[in-house]
Write a structure and sequence with these properties.
This protein has 355 residues and is an alpha+beta fold. Helix content is 23%, strand content 19%.
Amino acid sequence: MNRESNLKFGVRSRPGFSFVEVLLVVSVLGVLSLIGMSFISGVREQTMDVRLQSDTDLLNRAVTSYLANNGDLSDCESAEDVLGKLKSAATEASAKRTLGFTGSFVDPRIQPVSQSQEEAKSGKPRVAWNTTKLRFEIRNDGPPGVKRFETSGDGSGIPEAVDDRAATMKLAVEDNWIWDYTDRAVPPPMGTTSVTVTPVTEEPPPMPITPPTPRKNLLPPEFSVPTTTRPITEFDLPLIFTNPNPSGSSKIVYSIDYGNWIDFDGVAITVPPGSIVKAQALPENADAYYASRVSQESYSASPVKLEMPEIGSSATSFASRFAPRCPPRSGTTTPPSSETDSTGGSTRLSDRMGA
């Protein structure tokens, strides 16, 4: 039926989806579903790993408490054997004579779920019992282990396991004291014992002990120039150290302005202005002498007043240079010119007029 016939009979046509469009939408929804399922599966595996680690930690704490309360796990070879021990309670006889907790250490409903061979080959984590360390461990290789722990039922039909826990010290049963004990028998008295005495010969007198010679303190070095303030023109200042101690007993070291220590070789050193010099005598034989105290001297400079410079001239007279060059006025006399004396210098006008 076409559009014209639909209009003729009063039927309105509606546009629909094509087969390709429906197939495309279904494909997109399928891809999104796969992505969501893979994500949910990864989150679930992570959750299971975290739960397995938490359960393993709780079981190890129970193992520690079990061993502290006279438990014995030396004959356990697998995780199932250890869980059986942790679920058990002490026997009535051992509970009466044992100190500490005597009940079970885990919920009796806990059941281990073991891996299959295919799951063990896939490298998934599993719980195994370490017989050397006496602890549960999580591994990713090796034989199949426990992949998770589950609780089933209400525990009403599970028989209670008992364990005969051997304690080092048990409470008293026959005695009123805390522990049962038996007094040791008193040993019989001993008879006469003969002793052979060997005469002691006279020992030689002990050798005199020479007391060690006490160590002496070295004297500090002497400075050729003590602390002083001098004009700056006298710097750098020469300085020599003198050793007042016996010859060969010590050496002198010095330091300028808190620098490194330097061995003094007997040659005068130069001290710049504003310096602080330290010196000390060190022993050549540490068993005979102690090092001297550190001597310190300071050297300051004072300013020097400068003299005014002297200015010299190349001529002794300025009369000829500054004489008037214009002709004299009427009624005035012309000043006499300078003449040269016998020494080669010019004669000053004042001397000429005086002559």
